[in-house]
Design brief:
The structure holds two protein chains of two kinds.
Chain A (H helix, E strand, L loop, with lengths): L4 E3 L2 E5 L4 E6 L8 E6 L6 E6 L5 E4 L2 E6 L4 E6 L8 E7 L5 E2 L3 E6 L1
Parallel strand pairs in A: 2-11
Antiparallel strand pairs in A: 1-3, 3-8, 4-5, 4-9, 6-7, 7-8, 9-10, 9-11
Chain B lengths: L4 E3 L2 E4 L5 E6 L6 E8 L3 E9 L2 E5 L6 E5 L5 E5 L8 E8 L11 E3 L3 E5 L1
Parallel strand pairs in B: 2-11
Antiparallel strand pairs in B: 1-3, 3-8, 4-5, 4-9, 5-6, 7-8, 9-10, 9-11
The chains are: A mainly beta, B mainly beta.
């Protein structure tokens, strides 16, 4: 994988559903993996910075895992709420981060 | 603590003109990065300034330049504007501890929406 890729591109879920997205990144010369949440008309907000293979981070109902050997990270949202609706971006790299195109999540009440 | 601020928030220019955007980082943050966000390309890294020096640069033409002042405020300049420069320009600041690793969280500003006619 040469670029950072995210899937799916968009996702519609019902309130209360749990969901997950994938971020794939080049596994060679890995430095760090960042997850951001970007709500419409707001600034991107950092969720997690992950550096070690096997890292698991959690913030409330949101958690993320990291596999640097195979080059992927999963973001999980448990019991989605309408306020979770946003675009979720991941970025890999250090000084020159490469961003994925994001996963747009819409949670319907 | 005040967040990252960017001015102006919206800007309309015509082709061939130049533009200067400003970014004030969070107090104490010495690193400022600039990004361009377009629907077609997503979020792309322009450059990073650290202690008044450009530390890293993305793959953008020389028409895109920047600088950082001693108070860590940063400006980005785009000369000879083209229609394709229409985008949301975001800056982000980061606290870099002296002698520490650069994996710290970036804090983004609200962006400047540039429209080139």
């Amino acid at each position: 994988i040469l670029n950072v890729e995210q899937s799916p591109q968009s996702l519609h879920v019902q309130e209360g559903d749990s969901t997950n997205f994938t971020c794939s990144f080049p596994s060679s010369n890995f430095y760090a993996l960042h997850w951001y949440r970007w709500e419409t008309a707001k600034s991107p907000e950092a969720l997690f910075v992950m550096t070690l293979n096997g890292d698991e981070k959690k913030k409330g109902r949101i958690s993320a895992t990291l596999n640097t050997k195979e080059g992927y990270s999963y973001l999980y949202i448990k019991g989605s709420q309408p306020e979770d609706s946003a675009t979720y971006l991941c970025a890999s790299g250090s000084y020159i981060p490469t961003f994925g195109r994001g996963t747009s999540l819409i949670v319907h009440p | 603590k005040a967040g990252v601020t960017q001015t102006p928030r919206y800007l309309i220019k015509t082709r061939g003109q130049q533009v200067t955007l400003s970014c004030s980082p969070i107090s104490g943050h010495r690193s400022v990065s600039w990004y361009q966000q377009t629907p077609g390309q997503g979020l792309q890294f322009l450059f990073e300034y650290f202690s008044e020096t450009q530390r890293n640069k993305g793959n953008f033409p020389g028409r895109f330049s920047g600088r950082q002042f001693s108070n860590s405020r940063s400006e980005m300049n785009v000369s000879t504007l083209e229609l394709g420069d229409s985008a949301l320009y975001l800056c982000a600041s980061r606290y870099v501890p002296r002698g520490g690793a650069d994996t710290d969280t970036q804090y983004f500003g609200p962006g400047t929406r540039l429209t080139v006619l």
